[in-house]
Write a structure and sequence with these properties.
With 181 residues, the protein is an all-alpha fold. The chain is built from nine helices and no strands. The protein has a domain of 126 residues. Helices cover 65% and strands 0% of the residues. Helix 3 packs across helix 5.
């Protein structure tokens, strides 16, 4: 019998289920705690319909990293701002339940008590480097917890759909634009 089979496994299926259940309970509790304690802003930021100031801090760090390579470095600040406004408009058209879930995800990422353990980023979003944000995205994309993988997919879809609504980003990916009718 091979030597590695004699040792007990680190995590059984039951253990994985327990970790997943605990992580889900932790995220739900953190989101509820943020909304009840007032840590979660209830008012949108100036000039936005849905996005709050806490969301903007996180997204202003995230969006340039996600759009990097799809637009010139000099055009990135303008593209980031345009993407945030498009994202805000898209969120305003979500169903109330989907909007609530999205804002809970943003709350979890904004609160230091949940951001650190879940992302590995212990400093504020303003102090994170692009490499640290790429690490966080990679960590969530390849996580063993489906909740974190779903969070990554949601962030990716929200930002990329909002970014690629802008014609300035189309040439880089080879999209000629919609056909003329």
């Amino acid at each position: 019998m091979p030597e590695f089979l004699d040792e007990p496994t680190l995590l059984s299926r039951r253990g994985v289920l327990k970790v997943g259940l605990c992580a889900s309970a932790f995220l739900a509790t953190a989101g509820l705690g943020a909304s009840l304690s007032g840590c979660s802003a209830t008012f949108s930021a100036r000039g936005f319909r849905v996005l709050r100031s806490t969301d903007l801090v996180f997204l202003q760090a995230l969006v340039p990293v996600m759009l990097a390579g799809s637009i010139s470095h000099t055009s990135l600040p303008g593209a980031t701002d345009a993407t945030l406004h498009t994202l805000d408009n898209n969120l305003a058209h979500l169903s109330p339940e989907l909007l609530k879930l999205t804002l809970q995800l943003f709350d979890v990422l904004a609160m230091p008590v949940t951001r650190g353990p879940l992302t590995g980023l212990w400093s504020s979003w303003e102090k994170t480097t692009p490499d640290q944000i790429r690490y966080f995205l990679h960590r969530w994309q390849n996580s063993s917890l489906s909740l974190l993988r779903m969070g990554h997919a949601s962030l990716l879809q929200l930002v990329m759909m909002s970014g690629y609504e802008k014609p300035e980003l189309w040439p880089h990916c080879g999209y000629p634009g919609p056909p003329t009718v």
